Amino acid sequence: MNWTQFTPAASEIFLAASALLVVVLGAFSKSKDALGWFRVAMLALVCAIIIGIKKYNGPTVAFNQMFVQDNLSLAFKAIIGAASFISVWLSMPYFKRRNAAKFEYPLIIMLATVGMFSMVSAQDFLGLYVSLELQSLSLYVLASFHRDEKLSAEARIVGYNFILCLL
After folding, report:
1. Are 152 and 145 spatial neighbours (Cβ–Cβ below 8 Å)?
2. Does residue 146 register a pLDDT over 80?
3. Phi and psi dihedrals of 122, rounded to 5?
4. Per CATH, is 3-124 categorized as 1.20.120?
C-alpha cells in the first residue's frame, strides 16, 4: 500500500482524526469547561484548510477514481471550512450565556464538515451518497441538540422519520 494515495484526502483524514480525538478526550475529561473543545474544533478546522491547501499538487484522483482533488473542490472546502469555523466561533457566546456548553456540539460540526468536504470531492454516486449521509446525520443530531426544548423535539422526530424512510 502506497501512503501517498491518501494525500488528496489529507484534510478529511485530519479532520476525522481530530473529531475522534475530541470524542475520546471529551468523554474522559473531568473539566466542566467545554468551551475549550470549541477552540480545539476551530483550530482543527483551520488546520484542515491549511493542510488541504499545502498538500495540493494539482488536480488528482484517488481511491480508484472515487475521490477528486482539484481547484474547484479545494475552493469549496475552504469556503465550507471557513463557514464551519464561523459557526463554531459565533456559537461560543450563546453556549457560554446559557451555561450549556458541551463537547458534542463542536464534534458534530466537525463530523458534518468532514461529510461536506468528502461530498465536494466525490466523483461517483456511492461516494456522494456516503458523504451526504455523514453530513445529514450529523446535522439531524445538531437540529435536535437541545433535548428539553419543544422545537428541538419536533426537529428530532422529523429527522428520525426521514432517516427511517432512507432505510
Report:
1. yes
2. no
3. -70, 135
4. yes
